Amino acid sequence: MECKEKYFDDKMNLTNKEIEESLKKAMEEGKKQGIKIGRKQSQIKIITNLLAMDMDLDIIYKITGLSLEEIKELIN
């Protein structure tokens, strides 16, 4: 009986470790996505401000390093 309990305890610990690893990976991925979203929002704000100052798209793309297509995509 003791061996059976140990087997199930080991299985539960393994499962808990797997759950912890999955949660850690999910949190890391969520953090990466959050940073990506924040950067995109920042770029949109910068582009919007530059457009409000009547800057040409060619200048904006040189300032931001984004392609004209990326800029157009962000402002739409």
Automatic annotation (TrEMBL):
Lineage: superkingdom = Bacteria
The name this protein goes by in its record: Transposase
Q: Which organism is it from?
A: Clostridium oceanicum
